Amino acid sequence: MKYPSYTVAIRTLGKAGEKYQAELDSLANQSLKAEAINIYIPNGYDIPKETVGLENYYRCDKGMVAQRALPFDEITTDYILFLDDDMVLPPNAVEDMFDKLAEKKGECISISVEPPYSLTILRVLKLAIVSGWYPHRDRNVAWKIAPNGEYTFSAHPAAKVLATECVSFAIILISKSAYNKICFNEERWLDTFGYAVHDEAVFGYKLLCRGVQPYFYFADGYRHLSARSGHVKRESISDAKKIGCRLAVWHRLVYSLEKRSVLYKAMAVVAFSSFMMRQYILRGLKDLFLGEPQFFGLAIREMRKAWILIHSEPYKSLKPLDAAY
What is the four-CA torsion angle of 7, 227, 230, 191, rounded to 10 degrees? Predict the structure, then answer.
């Protein structure tokens, strides 16, 4: 089988250290070699010392979305392999992903590093209570967008490769033409909060609305080393930013869609409001226990920021994700 060409695109702050080196080593050992390994690092950040001698560094704005929402004019291959800076891939990973895409006649596939079927009952309950995620009955769809703006997932997938409504930004293989369809640079508003919650859901659902079905692969042999180099250290600030971003993402993913009925939107408002109240209380109590009582005020500030954002002219000028294009 003749495989398409691909370029690796890694977003980093250059602070992942040995985890980044492990990722580079795994890329160098791929059975199907990349034509280039491109690293996108924000202006002002030091180039990492870790190397396999194959990297090309490109400067860009800082942001979880900004570093993925680029024109990528320098990439001329058929596909782009997007990675975080702390993923370790098995030696046949890219070849295997192309094989799975060929079987599905697809253009986008991402990897689940923690398949739902590996979750315990207690873990599932925690996800439902704390994160607002819960299982759905459809065994043929890996992940769906829930009315509360969070996810539902297949706890018992019918196959290892399933259709999905969102992707995992830890690792995505996508055709350059499919990437260009979604104009992801329009979604840079996600970086407003400093922590782009569910950017991968916006990416995946926008693909789906643009006629590209993304797939989720419950694969073995991948390791996500969780460098967390871009995460906010103080829990209260991080939690507050997530609260604000969730409001804006829910509006973009659920409430603003043209094809949703008035009844669905009313149900979504109830689901989201109850979820956010639970988040506000649970995360606030957690941060209070950690000695950071300022969360409650910070969360209100971030929600106000989200409210201002979704009523701003630049945001209102965006077409709904499911609008005709």
Answer: 50
